[in-house]
Design goal:
Keywords: Plasmid. Helices cover about 65% and strands about 0% of the residues. The protein contains nine helices and no strands.
Length: about 260
């Protein structure tokens, strides 16, 4: 984004905009501000480089598999942990009637690690998925604000369109707050493997078709409160300025008294 503020060669601006977009900066308003150009110019430059601005990449870190866990009978549900552990240990004992006490102890350690890792995995996975959904909704509604504002330029029912814009601003603000809550909840629960048994349990979970968590964890905002505050400030500042512009339009549109 910083490079956009220093473009000068013909065509260089479009190249920089395309590079920023492909790097993940898909907020058209932010791109326009950085390049000191209008939003329509951003759209035109992106399309000149073969990019459809209406198709925003979703990324590769999105957790889409939230199917229930069943790893040797462990579901990751806290209330069931003790019962599932006892059942797993009984199954193993029934299948190994001649096992020694040491073998039983080793299996107990393995099952305890599997139980704990499955529980922690389920908790972190769900928190990450909720954050990703909230983040996508936040971005969608912020983009919706821009679409509603642009629609005012050609809206036949201007007052109704303006009301829709005001509602969009309110919804975007609520979405920012919701995302912050989800992001803070996700960031409060890191996921680690504390032992070789934990690592084996984590591999077993992934081999059962459940997603790894590392990329989604790395994708979390490290300072969601600050980001939310900045997004709110940007939204409020833009809205305040637009309300002044709308007031001018209304004054012109009102018949002389």
């Amino acid at each position: 984004m910083a490079a956009l503020r220093d473009w000068s060669k013909p065509g260089r601006r479009a190249d920089l905009l395309a590079a920023a977009w492909q790097a993940g900066e898909t907020n058209v308003s932010a791109l326009a501000e950085a390049a000191r150009i209008s939003r329509p110019t951003v759209y035109a430059d992106l399309r000149s480089r073969g990019i459809d601005p209406d198709h925003r990449p979703k990324g590769t870190n999105v957790i889409t598999n939230l199917s229930p866990l069943d790893i040797e009978g462990f579901t990751g549900v806290g209330e069931r942990m003790d019962a599932e552990f006892d059942a797993a240990l009984r199954r193993w004992a029934a299948e190994h009637p001649t096992a020694t006490r040491e073998e039983g102890r080793t299996e107990g350690v393995r099952l305890a690690a599997l139980m704990d890792t499955t529980y922690r995995y389920a908790d972190v996975r769900d928190r990450l998925a909720h954050e990703q959904v909230a983040r996508a909704e936040r971005n969608r509604l912020l983009h919706h604000v821009e679409l509603r504002w642009e629609a005012l330029s050609t809206a036949p029912a201007w007052l109704a369109a303006h009301h829709a814009y005001v509602l969009a601003v309110d919804e975007a603000g609520l979405a920012i707050d919701m995302w912050r809550e989800r992001a803070e909840a996700a960031g409060s629960r890191p996921f680690f493997c504390f032992s070789p048994q934990d690592e084996e349990a984590y591999r077993q979970i992934q081999q059962a078709g459940h997603p790894s968590l590392e990329k989604a964890l790395a994708d979390l905002d490290p300072a969601p409160a600050q980001t939310a505050e900045q997004l709110r400030a940007n939204l409020d500042q833009a809205h305040e300025h637009r309300m002044k512009l709308a007031a001018q339009t209304l004054r012109i549109a009102q018949p002389a008294q």
